[in-house]
Amino acid sequence: MGLHRGYRQRGLRSYVAVGRRASDDPAVLAMSAGEVGGSTTRFLDRVQDRVAGLGRVLDDLRGLECFRYPATYRLLDLAPHPPDVIHAHNLHGGYFDLRALPWLGRQAPLVLTLHDAWLLSGHCGHSFGCERWRIGCGECPDLSIYPGIRRDETARNWRRKRDIYARSRLHVATPCEWLVERVKASMLAPAIVEARVIPNGVDRTIFCPGDRRAARAQLGIADEALVLLFVASDVRRNPFKDFRTLHAAVSRIAAGLPDRPVLFVALGQIESSRQPEGTEVRYVPFESDPHRVARYYRAADLYLHAARADTFPLSVLEALASGTPVVATAVGGIPEQVRSLRPSDAAPAGASPGVATGALTRPGDVDDLARAAVDLLNRPDLVARLGVNAARDAERRFDLDDQCDAYLQWYDRLVAGRRGPDAMSDAG
């Protein structure tokens, strides 16, 4: 939605088609049966959707990823104007017919931004250590990984996707080099006309440095506490995060800093707060107001992010933009977000204090995560320096306006290219 708002602010006609509408923005359009056409057409659409619903039940029982969403083919009728560019984002979640990709690519230039690796596999959003997505899946080690399936039809699902891509022409974007390299090694590669890395951006008018004391007062957090923050959806049970490692590390951080109370805030979980020895664990429900979320980043001394798999987490960018140093596990695209003071596989020499924005740690290593946090918190001047670096780096690399501009410049070239070489010349 950040890109959509950015486009609208620039005076462009932008519409967002979604499976389930949760916004009162008139430019957010629901891809559901009976949204367009006359009464007879709407009735037939609903009948078609009911029939497809029965097919979805059968597909689910058989372990097939379901593509039976006929409203996808009415997508271009929802908006009042035909699109110059179609930009698709997450296509899993039970609303989109993947078989429509070849058709959509014939209607207008089709940009596809990947936020995870679902399009590359037989069912999972991230495969963790499994590499079978490279060769055709099958013999899946974990069918429960989101989006989970009931039976191991991963090889068939993989082939179905491959056959769809073979008939498609896609302009693919990813937010990080890590994911684009996986894309190029996958069955999606033959469909790619062009691939680009366009980092995600955050609204720095909201996520920016501010008065820490005022933020703590507004959130009911004591001035003297050392505040550690983690933000995620369903923080305890999210399969791609590593809350167990994070929770264990917080206890060790508190033990390593016995002279100050430690508060660990887990934002995105409905649960009773706890006070184990030496620390307080405060669970905060999901917060939809970004201004209030930004207060938590400003109130924190460090943002901790432990993950088993992650592409380019927005929470890391929000923390950096807020001037909060990040200590995170070095998985996925996270090493491209955090300039680590400590050596890592991504930066064997580490970054100097003059440019570092945090520290990277080994995945699943409680001691390493705790040690990195304690080393920083014992040096408040260094934490302050890293916070200044973080905000500057976010301004340079992760600004939402820059992300919008990068996509708009790409759209211009795609539209001009579709119109012919003369238009391309005019577009520069």
Task: Report on this structure.
This protein is an alpha/beta fold. The protein has 13 helices and twelve strands. The chain has a six-stranded parallel sheet, with helices on both faces. Helix 3 links the parallel strand 3 and strand 4. Helix 6 packs across helix 8, helix 9 packs across helix 11 and helix 12 packs antiparallel against helix 13.
Question: Can you write the helix and strand succession as a string?
Answer: HEEHEHEHEHEHEHEEHEHEEHHHH
Any idea what the radius of gyration is? Answer: 23 Å
Structural class: alpha/beta
Helix content: 25-40%
Main pleated sheet? 6 strands, parallel
| Counted beta strands | 12
Strand content: 5-15%
Unreliable runs = 423-428
Mean pLDDT across all amino acids: 92
User: Which of globular, elongated, flat, extended, rod-shaped describes the shape?
Assistant: globular
H/I helix tally: 13
Q: Which strand order do you get reading across the main beta sheet?
A: 9-8-7-10-11-12
What is the CA-CA span between the terminal residues?
29 Å
